Amino acid sequence: MELLSIVIFGLLIVVSPGADFVLVFKNSAMYGRKAGMLTALGIGAGVCVHISYSIIGISQLIANNAGLFSLVKYVGAAYLIYLGITGLLSAKLTFDYGTPLIKPVENRKYIMQGFLCNVLNPKTMIFFLSVFSQLISSHSDGLAFVISYGVYIAVLHGVWFCIVAYLVTSAKATRVLKRFGHRINQACGVGLITFGAILSTNA
Fold this sequence. Notes:
Oligomer: single chain
Helix content: over 70%
Distance between the termini: 33 Å
Strand content: under 5%
Order of helices and strands: HHHHHHHHH
Structural class: mainly alpha
Largest sheet: none
């Protein structure tokens, strides 16, 4: 039951709407399926960073250093607000659905957006600080289990957000986005700004 509980818990955390979801939705709607999936891959890579510092014990350092944690919190919040403002400013652009991203620099751009959005999100950091510190302490003789759970969470993030990118750019969703894409993009921009503002004010 313990294993089933943490598996389900990880699933619920991943699928619950958040800044990562908003970013994948926005990039998929504006720049096509490939952009959304590249963003998803970046998010999965960002999760690996959280897993790594949690497992090697840096999580304890951050938890006990208020100044360091505050710095990460405000940098993360500022980046989310930046992404939101960018979305608002580009809301009037024509949506380009399904256009291949040929330039490698563009591919890296969306991967880095997903990576930074996840890595600099204090909410994600708090989740891994709490969950993995408990897993490490309760499974001191089972490091392989902790690493396996981390891999599960990272893969789950990548797969889930690729699914989101696929659904957003499906034929039915595309028809909706062509009609309401401008408003949806504005809403996504506001959503990112809101997440950033909330995270910057929460302790």
